[in-house]
Design goal:
This protein is α+β, with helices and mostly antiparallel strands. It contains 25 helices and 27 strands. Among the domains are: about 1-100, 2-Layer Sandwich (Alpha-Beta Plaits), CATH 3.30.70; about 250-335, Calcium-transporting ATPase, cytoplasmic transduction domain A; about 425-455 and about 560-670, 3-Layer(aba) Sandwich (Rossmann fold); about 455-555, Calcium-transporting ATPase, cytoplasmic domain N. Helix 5 runs parallel beside helix 8 (about 210-235).
C-alpha cells in the first residue's frame, strides 16, 4: 500500500505521467529528462541542481534555463524517478517527463503575466500622473479638501495596481528571502511597500505629501526591462524544439513474419529491422540491409549532393530518403541517435550561453547590499542627530527610490531595442539581445561553406563546352526528376520538352528511349565510366553508343562573399572555413576568398571541437552557417549568425539572421554591435555618475521621495536618449 501511494504521488507530481516509463539505462546509470516549470534565474538553477544532488546517488543534475530541460542521472533503481519528481515539486518546481516535440515555449505564460502587469502599471501611472500634476500645479489655489480627495483617488488607483503589477518582483524577493538570499528585487519591493505605506499614512493621518506616482512609475519602468530580458532568453529554446520536430514520430517495423507495423519511434531498439519509404526520415541511426536510392545527407555532411544509399551504408537519424524503398537495421534507439545528440549539443551550447553574465548583473550584486546599507544608515544617522522618525523614514525612502536601478536596468535593454531596430532596417534580425555585446567582442569568424559563402545549389558551369544538342538531350530526362543535379540541368537548358517513360534508377541516374536510342544521364559509376578525381561535382550523358559527355557543376560563391571577407579582415578578424563538403570544393573556395585556415569533411561534433580549440587559443568566436549540421556549432559559438535561406533549426540556434541573400549585412551587424557596446558602457557610466551625485543629496535630506522619483525617471530618460543615438546611424 505504501509503494502504491508513492507511485500515485509521483504520478500526481508529474502531471499523471509515469516518469519511470521515460527512464533510459546506460552504462549502469538511470537517465531521465524532465521538463521543469517555474525556473527563471540562476538562483533557481542552483536551488534545483543543489537540491537533487543532496542525494548521493545522483551523478548529474543539469538544468537548461532556456528550454526548461533537466538532465538527471543517478545510480540505482529507475523507480527513483518518481521520488525526484516529488522532490522538485516540494522545492516549488513541478516537473513532467520531457517530450520536446509536444512542448511549447515554457516561458510563454510568464511573458503574458509580465505584459498584463506592465499594462496595469502603465494605466495606473498615466492616471496618477494626471492627478499629481493637478496637485502640483494647483499649489495654494487648491483647497486641502480637494488635495485630500486627489490623494484618496490616487490611493484607490495605485494600491491595487501596485499589488498586481509588482507580483513578479514581490514573488522573486520572497523566494530569495526564504532561502536566505537577497537579490535586486528585494530593495525594489521594499521601496514600493514603503512608498505606498507612507503615502497611505500621509493621505489619512499625516501632512498629505504622497508618493503614489513614484511607486507605480518605478514598477512600470522595471517591468519593461524584465519583459525584454524574458523574451530574449526564451528565444534560445527555439533551436531544440525545432530539432525535435525533425525527429520521426513513427517507424515502420519489419516483423519476423514479413508484416510491417507502425510503432512510435521512441520504441525502436537496436537490432530492429525497419522499412523506409521514399519521403520518410530515418528514425534512428541504422545500417542499410536492402535497397538502393538517394538520401539527403545535409544533416551530417552539409553537402548539397545526395548520398548514394546502398547495402552496408550507415545512415543517421534525420536523413531524408529521396527515392526507393530501403530496409534498415537499427544501430541505436532514438535517444542515442545522431539527431538526439545534435539536440543535446545545441542545448549544451545554449546553456553555456545562458550563463553569460552581463555587466548589469555584476553591478546589481554590489547594488543590493550597498543600497540597503545606505537606507539603514540614513535612518540611524538622522535619529542619532536628533531628527524625528518621519523625516528619517522619508529620507530612507528617497535613498531607495533615487538609487532604484531603473537606469541600471534600462542601460542594456534600451540599447538592445534601438540597435535591434536599426539592424532590422538593415536586413538583420536580432534574436538575442546580449548577442550584441558578444558580437562586438568577436575577433575570430568561422564560416560554413555550402549555403553560406556559396549559394547552396549546384549550377552547370561548363555549358559552353558541352557538344551541340547534348545539353538539351540531358535536359529532356532531367525535367522529369527532382534530383539537385537534374534541376541544375533543367535550369541551364530552360523550358522545353520532357522525355516519356523516364526511369529513375536510385543511386544511379535517369534512363529513357528517345528517338529510338537509349539515353542515360547520371553517375559515372552507374554508367561504367572511370572518372578522374575532380573538385567539381559531375554527371555524364550517354546516348546510344556515342562517347560519354561530361557535365560539370559547382556551387557558386555569393556575389558579396569576397567583399565581406575583405571587410572582416580590415576589422582585425581572423577567418576560418569549416565545411562538411569534400576537400576539393572547400579548398577552391578558400583559395578564391583568401582564407588560409580551412578544414573539410567535418561532422557537427568536429565543428564544435574546432570551435572549442579556437576558444582555448584565446579567440572570441563568431560562427556563420546555414545547414542543419551547423545548428550545434551555432549554439556552441560565442555568437552566431545564420541566413534567411538557412534551415529553420539553424535560424533558431543563431543569434542573428540575415534577411535576403547578401552576407554584407553581417559586417553591418558587427559595426552596430560594437557601437551598441559603447552605448551600454556609456549608460553604465551615466547611471554611476547619477548615483554618485543623487545618493549623497538623498542621504542629506535634500531630496524628497517625489523629487527622487523624478530624478530616477530622468536618469532612465537620459540612458534611453543615449541609446537612441544608434538609431540615427551613430556607432
Amino acid at each position: 500500500m505504501v509503494a502504491l501511494d508513492a507511485t500515485q504521488s509521483g504520478l500526481a507530481a508529474s502531471g499523471g505521467v509515469d516518469p519511470q516509463a521515460f527512464v533510459r539505462r546506460r552504462e549502469g546509470l538511470s537517465e531521465l529528462d524532465l521538463m521543469v516549470r517555474g525556473a527563471t534565474c540562476a538562483g533557481c538553477i542552483a536551488r534545483i541542481e543543489g537540491g537533487l544532488r543532496e542525494d548521493d546517488r545522483v551523478e548529474q543534475a543539469r538544468l537548461n534555463l532556456s528550454t526548461g530541460r533537466l538532465a538527471l542521472a543517478w545510480r540505482g533503481d529507475p523507480a527513483l524517478a518518481a521520488d525526484y519528481v516529488r522532490k522538485l515539486g516540494r522545492l516549488g518546481y513541478p516537473a513532467t517527463p520531457y517530450e520536446p516535440e509536444r512542448e511549447a515555449d515554457p516561458n510563454r505564460e510568464e511573458e503574458k503575466r509580465l505584459l498584463r502587469a506592465m499594462a496595469v502599471a502603465g494605466f495606473a501611472m498615466m492616471n496618477v500622473m494626471l492627478l499629481s500634476i493637478s496637485v502640483w500645479s494647483g499649489g495654494l489655489e487648491m483647497s486641502e479638501t480637494m488635495q485630500a480627495l486627489m490623494h484618496r483617488i490616487s490611493a484607490l488607483i495605485v494600491l491595487p495596481a501596485a499589488a498586481f503589477a509588482g507580483q513578479p518582483f514581490f514573488r522573486s524577493a520572497l523566494r530569495a528571502l526564504r532561502v536566505g538570499h537577497v537579490n535586486m528585487d528585494v530593495p525594489i519591493s521594499l521601496a514600493v511597500f514603503l512608498a505606498c505605506g507612507l503615502s497611505v499614512w500621509e493621505t489619512f493621518i499625516g501632512h498629505g505629501q504622497t508618493y503614489y506616482d513614484a511607486a507605480v512609475m518605478l514598477l512600470f519602468f522595471l517591468l519593461i526591462g524584465r519583459f525584454l530580458d524574458m523574451r530574449l532568453r526564451a528565444r534560445a529554446g527555439e533551436a531544440a524544439r525545432g530539432l525535435a520536430a525533425m525527429q520521426a514520430a513513427t517507424a515502420n517495423l519489419l516483423e519476423a513474419d514479413g508484416r510491417i507495423r507502425a510503432i512510435p519511434a521512441r520504441d525502436v531498439k537496436a537490432g530492429d529491422h525497419l522499412v523506409l519509404a521514399a519521403g520518410d526520415r530515418v528514425p534512428v541511426d541504422a545500417r542499410i540491409l536492402e535497397g538502393e536510392g538517394a538520401l539527403d545527407g545535409s544533416l551530417v555532411t552539409g553537402e548539397t549532393a545526395p548520398v548514394t544509399a546502398k547495402p552496408g551504408l550507415d545512415v543517421w537519424s534525420g536523413m531524408l530518403n529521396l527515392d526507393g524503398k530501403l530496409v534498415l537495421e537499427a544501430r541505436a534507439d532514438r535517444d542515442n541517435s545522431l539527431l538526439a545528440e545534435i539536440t543535446r549539443l545545441v542545448e549544451a551550447g545554449e546553456q553555456a550561453r545562458s550563463r553569460y553574465v552581463r555587466l548589469a548583473d555584476r553591478a546589481a550584486r554590489l547594488y543590493v547590499p550597498v543600497v540597503h546599507g545606505l537606507a539603514a544608515l540614513t535612518v540611524v544617522g538622522w535619529l542619532l542627530i536628533g531628527g524625528e522618525v518621519r523625516p528619517a523614514i522619508i529620507n530612507a525612502i528617497a535613498v531607495l527610490i533615487i538609487t532604484c536601478p531603473c537606469a541600471l536596468g534600462l542601460a542594456v535593454p534600451a540599447v538592445q531595442v534601438v540597435a535591434s531596430g536599426r539592424l532590422y532596417r538593415e536586413g538583420v534580425l536580432v534574436k538575442s539581445g546580449d548577442a550584441l555585446e558578444r558580437l562586438a567582442g568577436a575577433d575570430t569568424i568561422v564560416f560554413d561553406k555550402t549555403g553560406t559563402l556559396t549559394e547552396g545549389r549546384p549550377r552547370l558551369v561548363d555549358a559552353d563546352g558541352v557538344p551541340d544538342g547534348a545539353l538539351e538531350m540531358a535536359a529532356r530526362l532531367a525535367r522529369t526528376s527532382r534530383h539537385p543535379l537534374s534541376r541544375a540541368i533543367a535550369d541551364a537548358a530552360g523550358m522545353g520538352e520532357a522525355a516519356a517513360d523516364v526511369k529513375e534508377i536510385p543511386g544511379g541516374g535517369l534512363e529513357a528511349m528517345v528517338a529510338g536510342q537509349r539515353v542515360r544521364f547520371g553517375a559515372a559509376r552507374w554508367l561504367g565510366i572511370d572518372a578522374a578525381s575532380d573538385p567539381h561535382t559531375e554527371a555524364w550523358l550517354v546516348v546510344g553508343n556515342d562517347a560519354p559527355v561530361r557535365f560539370c557543376f559547382e556551387d557558386r560563391l555569393r556575389e558579396d562573399a569576397a567583399e565581406v571577407i575583405a571587410a572582416l579582415k580590415a576589422r582585425g578578424c581572423q577567418l576560418h572555413l569549416l565545411s562538411g563538403d569534400r576537400a576539393g570544393p572547400v579548398e577552391a573556395v578558400a583559395a578564391t576568398l583568401g582564407i588560409t585556415d580551412w578544414q573539410a569533411e567535418m561532422q557537427p561534433q568536429d565543428k564544435i571541437a574546432r570551435l572549442e580549440a579556437l576558444k582555448e587559443a584565446g579567440g572570441t568566436v563568431a560562427m556563420v552557417g546555414d545547414g542543419i549540421n551547423d545548428a550545434p556549432a551555432l549554439a556552441a559559438a560565442h555568437v552566431s549568425i545564420s541566413l534567411a535561406s538557412a534551415a529553420e533549426v539553424s535560424q533558431a540556434a543563431a543569434d542573428f539572421v540575415l534577411q535576403g541573400d547578401r552576407l554584407a549585412a553581417s559586417v553591418v551587424a558587427m559595426d552596430v554591435s560594437r557601437g551598441a557596446k559603447r552605448r551600454v558602457l556609456e549608460n553604465f557610466g551615466l547611471a554611476a555618475a547619477y548615483n554618485a551625485i543623487a545618493v549623497p543629496m538623498a542621504v542629506a535630506g535634500l531630496v524628497t521621495p517625489l523629487i527622487a522619483a523624478i530624478a530616477m525617471s530622468a536618469s532612465s530618460v537620459l540612458v534611453t536618449l543615449n541609446a537612441l543615438r544608434l538609431a540615427r546611424g551613430g556607432r
